[in-house]
Amino acid sequence: MRELVYYVAVSLDGYIAAPDDTFSDFPMQGDHIDMILRDYTDTIPTLGLRATGLTPDLSRFDTVLMGWNTYRAGGVHPPDGPYGHLKQYVFSRKHSAVEPAVTSTGDDPVEIVRMLKSEKGSGIWLAGGGMLASALVGEIDRLILKVNPVLLGSGKRLFAEREYSPLRSRLVASASYESGVVVNEYVVDR
After folding, report:
1. Model-level pTM greater than 0.90?
2. CA distance 139 to 89
3. Domain of 15: which CATH number?
4. Fewest Cβ atoms closer than 10 Å to its Cβ: which of 30, 90, 131, 153?
5. Is 71 inside a domain boundary?
């Protein structure tokens, strides 16, 4: 069965974006970027792939899930959406204006993820945001957190507030980079 992987950059104090949904406080240069370009090519936006000449092999992910704010934070997207090489889903009950290659839905994200997990393919990437992650917390199989060496103080949290319900996980890999970024990979215990 396919895995739902929450792969996201996060500050030391648990924020995935500034209050205005930007990510500019996270380091955009350094040796951790080389790792992303090499190992997570599937997660590079369409415009980034075109600029670098890289071709994703879709072995890690073939589907991406985004909340509306995560989708919107990317600015103006090309006609095939922010990740034209992936199946793209945007979850929102208020907004639906997306590119034709993007599926916009107000349906229950848990039902969508369970349907996607039953299909053939590689991983399902949960790109954010915190509200969608909280809605899907029971479906997340793996977390890959790019922990950035910055304290934001406020902004968009890794997970939105939810009912108290501990979810245990095990650290299966950790790599630190000269840039100060540490990538931790956790498998959720079920």
Report:
1. yes
2. 16
3. 3.40.430.10
4. 153
5. yes
